[in-house]
Amino acid sequence: MALCKKDYPVVKKPFHVPELRAVADVLNNGLKAHFSEVLVEVVDCPDLTQAPFHLANKGLNGNPNLLDIGGPSFLIPLVDRTKVYDLKDMAEISGNKPAFLIGAGAGPFNHLKTNCEGIFNINVGDEIKQESRIGMLNRETGSPMELKLNNSITEFGLLGNLYSSQGKEGKVLKVHAVKRIGTIDFIASIRSVLSEAYKSQDGIVGLGGTFIIKKGSAKLHIMPDFSDTPIEDDETLNKWLQFFNMSSPLVAVGTLVTGTYNMDLREQHFHMFSDHGNAGHYHIDTTPDVVEYLGYFNVANHIFRVDQPKTDAAFGKD
């Protein structure tokens, strides 16, 4: 059973919201240090329900907000199994109806009876349109597998980073990048450029959206079932996580922020799914010479910090 909304605190903070055209100019210039070919434009959002994205609603507009729920402190050093949330509650908190929610988090371990990766992609209105996926390990082989959730499962566990909108069509950022020449991943590249450009602002900038790796492959992880022994540092965490090289096309959903507001915000978090059984937590492409990214993003108005752990996570946010 998920926690009731009254059982956890919610703090709302405003973002600095630059014009999309200004953000596009910043990224067009800054991403040239990270990719050999870059084009960032402000465009009408394509219909994201169509291939290759297969999202639960068409667009990224209409009261765009981010939610940061729980956190790694509920997973490590040992899991807190009481931390179960509901995407329908997150829709209400975000102030949208209907609410189109996309993002990354831990999956519904209470239903699947194992730890897993949640790739959230759902429209919550008078009816539920559920396109969310799960990345998990095959219990018998230990190999990665992907499952699609049905409409009846809207819960998730421990932590989540969601972009909420009304799914409306409208202007968005289109980011096309080819051949990585920098040392950090696609999302970290965007985040670092925006952080530098807007560091003098009073507020931080938040983005959410989706991207696809059209060519190449990427390093992803899938969490195995919960550890019985404490995970005390990055070394033991990386021994516990299961890493895989997964092939394109891979579709990602998630969020990024340029600061934390001293609220232990996760600065970036994207999970990936596919039509060929690959799914998990995105780290970085593994074929920089051939990789091709295409993404659509929007700037968010507010961050809702939901059920912030009392102790900030010292690691486990990569």
From TrEMBL:
Residues covered by the DUF1907 domain: 26-306
InterPro entries in UniProt: C11orf54_DUF1907
Gene name per UniProt: LOC108559134
Keywords: Hydrolase, Metal-binding, Nucleus, Zinc
Name the record gives this protein: Ester hydrolase C11orf54 homolog
GO molecular function: hydrolase activity
Statement: the UniProt record of this protein carries the keyword Metal-binding: yes
Keyword Cell inner membrane carried by entry: no
Summary of subunit composition and partner proteins: Monomer.
